Amino acid sequence: MSNRNSQTTKQAARERIRAEREREKKKERLRRQLVVAVSVVGVLAVAGGIGFAVMKANAPTGWEAAKEAKLVAPAHTQGPNGTEILIGDKNAKETLEVFEDVRCPACAAFEQSTGEELLKDIHDGRFKVRFTMYTFIDSMQGGEGSKNALSALGAALNVSPEAFLKYKSVLYSAKYHPDEREDLYAKDSELLKAAADVPELKGNAAFEKAVKNGTYDRWTMEMTALFGRKGVRGTPTFMHGGKKLAMAEIPQRQMTQEQYNELARANFRTMIDKEFGPAPGKDGAKDGGGKDAGKDGGQGIAKGEKDPTGGH
User: Fold this and answer.
1) HSE (CB half, 13 Å, CA atoms) of 202?
2) In the β-sheet with 85-87, what is the strand arrangement from edge to edge?
């Protein structure tokens, strides 16, 4: 073989080796690029996952989330966000305001001893009543029974004002009302058990669905935001216009439950008579427009009628 052929062969071999090396280098660069790209995608995915987890962790839950839910106000309400619950004969000239919390033991004592007196005055058309329902005991004692029960009361009010009044009485009854430290009304099952004692609510599928789905939870938070309205921070409280009514305390002495109830009713009647005058038909008092209120009582007020309690 000539020197020229040997040199040509060697040169060709070197070219092939160089070309092969270049191909290997390109493959290595491509592999590295793919590894980096996959790593970046992995990091972004993890970061995105962490970001989502952080967002979920910071997202409001439970009753805080209810503040941001769609507002559904019960029927038979009025005012801003449906927070005015005004019940009674539309022809009644006066309005009594009642402030309560469903878990409140003093409210339960009032309802159990004197609640029927209040209902009688409503049905007789003596006055309308605006109920402002608080939930502050949840904050004081912990739990969510006040709010959950108020949401259920909203579902009852959506059925009718009468169903609302009856259900409220049942929730405060000695049969169902728990110790304020026991958060029984946080359980829907307890609320539905009590509702079975109200004819309008027993077996009412729409009512039960609203309780279980928390349909009126957002409305409950709107009602909760009324705490401190007119300076009221305790329950039960009674007001007429801007005046806080005072009811005599029951003497601390040994007595039967019936004796206690009778004293409580007498003190309530005295407070109401002093503020509104004698009841219709009592001591020659004029009829306050309640002749047919037993039939119309609990039907709310006429649509568009201005709230006589001063708005807030």
Assistant:
1) 7
2) 85-87, 128-134, 95-101, 237-240, 243-244
- Residues 113/203, Cβ–Cβ less than 8 Å: no
Q: Are 146 and 185 in contact (CB under 8 A)?
A: yes
Q: Which residue has the higher pLDDT, 297 or 134?
A: 134
Helices 188-195/161-172 angle, 10° precision: 110
Residues making up the chain, counted from first to last? 312
Tell me which residue of 193, 102, 197, 106 sits closest to 151, measured CA to CA. 102
Q: Do 196 and 202 contact (CB within 8 A), yes or no? A: yes
* Secondary structure class of 190 (helix, strand, coil): helix
Take residue 72 and report the two structure tokens written for it.
């559904």
Average pLDDT, the chain: 83
| Structure confidence at residue 92 (pLDDT) | 95
- Rounded to two decimals, the pTM is 0.75
Say if strands 128-134 and 95-101 run parallel, antiparallel, or are unpaired: parallel
CA 306 to chain CA centroid, Å, is 25
pLDDT tens figures, 136-151: 999 999 999 999 999 9
CB 123 within 8 A of CB 298: yes
Element (H, E) at 158: helix 145-159
Look at residue 305 and tell me whether its pLDDT is greater than 80: no
Confidence of residue 11 (pLDDT cuts 50, 70, 90): low
Alpha helices, DSSP H, located in 188-256: 188-195, 205-213, 217-224
Q: And the tokens for 295?
A: 């039939």
- The stretch 14-38 carries a mean pLDDT of 63
State how far the Cα of 173 lies from the Cα of 194, in Å rounded to an integer: 9
Which pair of tokens denotes residue 135? 């939930």
Q: Where residue 279 falls among pLDDT bands split at 50, 70, 90?
A: confident
Of the candidates 151, 278, 311, 285, the one whose C-alpha atom is nearest the C-alpha of residue 217 is 151
Measured distance CA(95)–CA(77) in Å, rounded:
15
Q: Could you tell me the two tokens for 291? A: 């002749």
